[in-house]
Design brief:
Layout: E1 4-8, H1 15-28, E2 31-36, E3 41-48, E4 57-65, E5 68-69, E6 80-83, H2 88-92, H3 96-107, E7 112-115, H4 119-124, E8 132-133, H5 140-145, E9 149-150, E10 156-158, E11 161-164, H6 170-184
């Protein structure tokens, strides 16, 4: 039986930041489950930059079914956690079930990958203080206010935590996360 990895996400998550790690980790031999507020078809988004805009734009992205609701997650069944970005972390960080799930992974020192706005979740769960983390550059003040050191890199590794800025960092981010997984939670 393959080790299981959990992706915590919801509507308005960045399409690439959910689907790239999902497919890459399945390719590596892990069983990957997507958890959301409820078990339903999720609507992801695409964030990109358009000349003349001061920030990124948002367009509808792919849809994908959630395998289970947060309330049904037993985090002890999973060897690692992935927290994609997009707008989803803005509201997921307030969910008590999400905080419960995240706390388990940090307390058990299990691998966690976060990207873009994903650190909003670990900050709200109180799990990022004292660590180094990358994030979407606009979150630098949030990361620092949460007691973490901001490091704007494509693959910032702090123990079992691997973070990145946004989807252009995928190759470095997943390469570093897979290296942590091979050490801490290898596929037999």
């Amino acid at each position: 039986m393959a080790p299981k990895i959990l992706i915590v996400t919801g509507d308005a998550a960045e399409s690439l930041e959910v689907l790239y790690p999902y497919q890459r980790l399945v390719e590596e031999g892990y069983e990957v489950h997507i958890a959301a507020p409820t078990r339903k078809k999720l609507q992801f988004v695409v964030h990109d930059f358009v000349e003349g805009f001061d920030t990124y734009t948002e367009k509808p992205g792919y849809t994908w079914p959630a395998d289970l609701a947060f309330a049904d997650v037993d985090p002890a069944q999973y060897v690692a956690l992935v927290l994609p970005g997009g707008r989803a972390p803005e509201y997921l960080r307030n969910d008590a079930e999400v905080k419960r799930i995240v706390a388990h992974f940090f307390e058990a020192d299990k691998p966690v990958a976060q990207i873009c706005h994903g650190p909003l979740i670990t900050l709200a769960a109180g799990s990022l203080a004292g660590r180094r983390s990358s994030a979407y550059p606009a979150l630098e003040p949030d990361v620092k206010a949460g007691g973490a050191d901001f490091e704007g890199g494509e693959a910032v590794v702090d123990g079992v935590l691997v973070s990145a800025r946004a989807w252009p960092d995928h190759p470095g981010w997943m390469r570093a996360f897979v290296a942590v997984l091979r050490d801490k939670a290898p596929v037999d």
